Amino acid sequence: MKTIEIDDELYQYIAGKTEFIGESASDILRRLLAANSELSATPVHAKPVDTTTQNDAEDKVQIIESEQPVAVDTAQENANAVQELKTLTSCQNIFDVINKEELAMERGAVGRFLNILGNLHRVHPKQFSAVLDIRGRDRLYFAQSEAELLETGSSCKPKQIPDSRYWVMTNSNTTRKKLMLTDVAQVLGYNNEDAESIRDFL
Predict the structure, then answer these.
(1) Quick check: helix, strand or coil at residue 87?
(2) Do 110 and 170 touch, CB atoms closer than 8 A?
(3) Which helix (H) or strand (E) holds 185?
(4) pLDDT digits (tens, 9 = 90+) for 55-88
(5) pTM of the full predicted structure?
(6) Are the C-beta atoms of residues 97 and 122 closer than 8 Å to each other?
């Protein structure tokens, strides 16, 4: 296995080409390269083999195809199409996928708030249920349905977090939204410094 360094823009491009949960960067690159080469696009997993050095400035990596392609359950893939296309590898965090230009184009604080939460869900779908424990003294901040939020106050203006089954109240002021983002980041495992950076996206 060889490690290469790529810039953030290229990494985001590669990550954006993910077709199913758990697809590695090597598999994505192999599929993209196969469209313009003699490499087979059928195998899902490729194995790196012997590497030989031509000189100090150039390395050649030889890749062989796996012997058998891995079958993909198309029914499951269709049922979770949006989630699979949005979900990236577990090593990523929101800083790998957040698009500041897209964020700046959102309408007001509510749009940015939902965009940030959507990206957090995108890279932490399995842990995201932890946000349900974040709440105020007498009201819910997050729920799995609009009705559940409305039970704690008809004026909470619930909105669905993009590409998720979670809802969030949006009638709080910007300061409260920042505190909510900080709490969300922390329950998803970000340290205090990163949580503050996520809050400041708002």
Answers:
(1) coil
(2) yes
(3) helix 174-187
(4) 444 444 444 344 444 444 555 555 554 444 444 4
(5) 0.56
(6) yes
Q: What pLDDT band is residue 22 in, cutting at 50, 70 and 90?
A: low
CB atoms within 10 A of CB 152: 16
Residue with tokens 């495992």: 189
- Comparing C-alpha atoms, which of 121, 168, 170 is closest to residue 145? 168
* Residue whose pair of structure tokens reads 């079958």 in the numeric block: 71
Q: What span, in angstroms and rounded, lies between the C-alpha atoms of 119 and 186?
A: 15
> Which residue, among 68, 70, 88, 104, has the nearest Cα to 19 in the 3D structure?
88
CA distance 83 to 164: 8
Residue 197 tokens read as 């950076």
Phi-psi region of 192 (alpha: psi -120 to 50; beta: other; left: phi over 0): alpha
Residue at token pair 């029914």: 75
Return the structure tokens found at 131: 């946000």
**Does residue 30 contact residue 13 with C-beta atoms inside 8 Å?**
no
